[in-house]
């Protein structure tokens, strides 16, 4: 149908062009001497016009063929362009699906890696806790344990009392440094022991105490200079309280408290009794300076 329409349009265009040319360039009338000669010349003119019209028709048909070829080429171009677009669309969809799959795989791998990392972290923390527990257990088994188990009171050259403590290390390693300090006061009865306000007192440095051994040390006791034989010999009790601070081989500081009392001090030396009750021992104070 499209080709027929093009042919009709081409023929009409040819007729219009012919009419325009005839009006613009009129065909000269043949000069003749007789009717027969005029008729022959007119026939020749018509034959030339027919040949011209036929040539114009051929040109129009050729132009129509070119136009049809262009239309067909455009159609093929559109067809293959549409196929290419569809193929590109399918490729884009496939690429999107591949990208989505890759993203899902990456997310899954990241989740698995995070889980494995968390498991590794928990395992490492558990191992560190086990190491810390083992280290703490080893330190507890090996460290020094120093306490004052006995005390005695004697009298020096200036008639001042001297307090001697017997310090025992029941641990498996030595205490590298030891410091002893305390204070004293007079009490009317054993029930008054511990009621006195605890003052700030000095510490005197003493030698190390070996593992499983003991050491006798003269304690630095605040206020002991004011105590006389008469005061101790009376009915009042002499009470000493204090603590031992020591450093173990792990450079940790511990403290053990002590409390002893005496009713009568007979020269040259008298044993003191342990004040009943529990007192903190082996209290951890932290790292040594």
For this entry, give a set of tags.
alpha+beta; 289 residues; ten-stranded mixed sheet; rod-shaped; single chain; Immunoglobulin-like
What does this structure look like?
It is a single chain. This protein is of the alpha+beta class and 289 residues long. Among the domains are: 107-142; 146-287, Immunoglobulin-like (Sandwich). It has helices at 2-24, 35-142, 229-233, and strands spanning 146-155, 161-169, 177-187, 204-206, 214-218, 220-222, 237-247, 252-262, 269-274, 283-287. Strands 1, 2, 3, 4, 5, 6, 7, 8, 9 and 10 form a ten-stranded mixed sheet that branches. Helix 1 (2-24) packs across helix 2. The longest helix has 108 residues, at 35-142. The protein is rod-shaped, with a radius of gyration of 63 Å. The model has no long low-confidence stretch (mean pLDDT 81).
In a few lines, what is going on in this structure?
The chain is of the alpha+beta class and 289 residues long. Helices cover 47% and strands 26% of the residues.
Poorly predicted spans: none
Helix content: 40-55%
Count of helical stretches: 3
What is the total tally of β strands?
10
CATH class of one domain: Mainly Beta
Distance between the termini: 110 Å
Question: Radius of gyration in whole Å, from Cα?
Answer: 63 Å
Which CATH-level-2 architecture of one domain? Sandwich
The largest sheet is: 10 strands, mixed
Order of helices and strands: HHEEEEEEHEEEE
Main structural class:
alpha+beta
CATH topology of one domain: Immunoglobulin-like
Report the sheet-strand fraction.
25-35%
Q: How would you describe the shape?
A: rod-shaped
């Amino acid at each position: 149908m499209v080709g027929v329409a093009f042919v009709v349009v081409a023929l009409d265009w040819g007729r219009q062009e012919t009419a325009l040319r005839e009006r613009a360039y009129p065909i000269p009338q043949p000069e003749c001497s007789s009717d027969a000669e005029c008729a022959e010349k007119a026939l020749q003119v018509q034959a030339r016009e027919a040949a011209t019209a036929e040539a114009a028709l051929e040109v129009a048909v050729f132009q129509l063929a070119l136009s049809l070829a262009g239309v067909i080429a455009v159609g093929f171009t559109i067809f293959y362009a549409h196929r290419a677009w569809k193929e590109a669309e399918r490729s884009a969809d496939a690429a999107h699906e591949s990208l989505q799959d890759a993203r899902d795989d990456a997310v899954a791998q990241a989740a698995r890696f995070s889980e494995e990392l968390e498991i590794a972290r928990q395992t490492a923390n558990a191992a560190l806790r086990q190491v810390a527990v083992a280290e703490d257990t080893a330190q507890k088994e090996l460290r020094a344990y120093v306490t004052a188990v006995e005390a005695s009171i004697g009298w020096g050259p200036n008639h001042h009392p001297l307090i001697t403590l017997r310090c025992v290390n029941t641990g498996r390693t030595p205490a590298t440094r030891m410091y002893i300090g305390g204070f004293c006061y007079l009490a009317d009865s054993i029930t008054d022991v511990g009621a006195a306000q605890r003052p700030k007192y000095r510490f005197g440095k003493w030698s190390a105490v070996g593992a499983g051994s003991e050491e006798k040390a003269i304690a630095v006791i605040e206020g002991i200079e004011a105590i006389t034989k008469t005061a101790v010999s009376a009915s009042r009790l002499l009470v000493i309280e204090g603590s031992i601070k020591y450093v173990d081989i792990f450079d940790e500081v511990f403290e053990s408290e002590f409390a002893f009392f005496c009713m009568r001090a007979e020269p040259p030396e008298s044993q003191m009794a342990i004040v009943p009750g529990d007192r903190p021992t082996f209290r951890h104070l932290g790292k040594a300076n």
